[in-house]
Fold these 2 entries.
Entry 1:
Amino acid sequence: MSPAVEGQRVADMDRRARARLIQPVFQDPFSSLNPLARVRDIVAMPLRAQGNIDRADVTRRVEEMLARVGLTTEMGARLPTELSGGQRQRVAIARALVLKPRIVVCDEPTSALDVSVQAQILNLLAELRRELGLTYVFISHNLAVVEHVASEVAVMYLGRIVERRPTQALFHAPEHPYTKALLASVLTPEPGLGVPDVGLGDVMPDPANIPPGCRFHPRCPVAEARCATQTPPLKARPGGGVECLLVP
Ligand code: SF4
């Protein structure tokens, strides 16, 4: 079934309507911005693509958006190659928000940045979410970032959501064995502790060859024989659910 937003099926929308509703921020601001385009033209592109916004309005909205993400008007005349990584990601965020979308898909938006800049971008995203009433679909492997930004977390394994819960519940009482392994695999700064053994073994998942039954069973430390043949049903939880044969 096609997802719907506020009762409207996304698949039924034309491209321009979908762009007004959902925008992306990609992982790598070094490759997601056209290196030959000026910053102001990059941010203006979604407005121009709508085809019905006059030039003065485009200029005004681009300048407003640059200021909102912490960039100066002068930076609008630069090329992406003349900006730092953090500034480039601000350009990518401005481009995503200039149409005032409801939903922003943030695909690992800080993982290509220096650690010191990551916090600035996360704070900026949090500020903009509050100010503009945005919803983020935030994709990340960094659990500390997920815990910091998310109100609800969906854990995926081989393309399937295996546990979805409110953030506090998931981090304090994970139920799915994969979620537990993920949380246990976080490295600590304590020297000498090494890499934690979370019991997932050496079998690497192959998306082209999904295992039968529970797709996690070849790696699951608590798998039973039935896990290789039975597909786990969704067990409802407040605000979500979990897919594991062993949970009540
Ligand atoms: S269904 Fe079985 S293999 Fe899958 S997560 Fe639960 S215990 Fe592990």
Note: The chain has two domains: 20-148, 151-185+209-248.
Entry 2:
Amino acid sequence: MLDLDSISEILREKLDPKRYLHSLGVQKVAVDLAVRYNVSIEKAAIAGLLHDCAKNLNNNELLQLSSKFDILLDNVLRNNIKLLHGPVGAELAKYKFCIEDIDILNAIRFHSTGRENMSPLEKIIFLADYIEPNRDFAGVDQLRSIALSNLDRATLMAFEHTIEYVLKKGDLLHVSTIHARNYLLLDINHKRS
Ligand SMILES: [Fe+2]
Ligand SMILES: [Fe+2]
């Protein structure tokens, strides 16, 4: 596994400056949340830094790599190819950055769609991506403060914000995002039988 400085150096070359700064912001917030919720700081730092490692790829490259890595394309992914930067990023993290830890790889894989029953690290990366210091949207400060007191509630709010945003834009909504939101809501309300 590469160390953080080497990963950071490679990403600085690969990503555009804004995306690189965003990745550093996600790394920082992920570490803060990992400390708060007793999750491995090292895993949070690596996953945060690497989560957008495939974001610089164009649609053709994302499709080619998806085929190479046998990533299954559903209708939504086929029509919203940028969403593939999560699953493709996980494969690049594994094969280019030599990350073996499955929780780190899953945090990268599911950071844009989410999924049911996310691990604490997966929630932390999803949330850190949302609230890192370069993000600016109505409600971000409230979300930042809830993130420090209740990980599940903040993650649920971030999913609901994503869903509203996607609907307003008239984009396709990935079914995993709905599953992630419903699962969290049931978890919070202790309603799962
Ligand atoms: Fe992303
Ligand atoms: Fe991101």
Note: The first helix runs from residue 4 to 14.
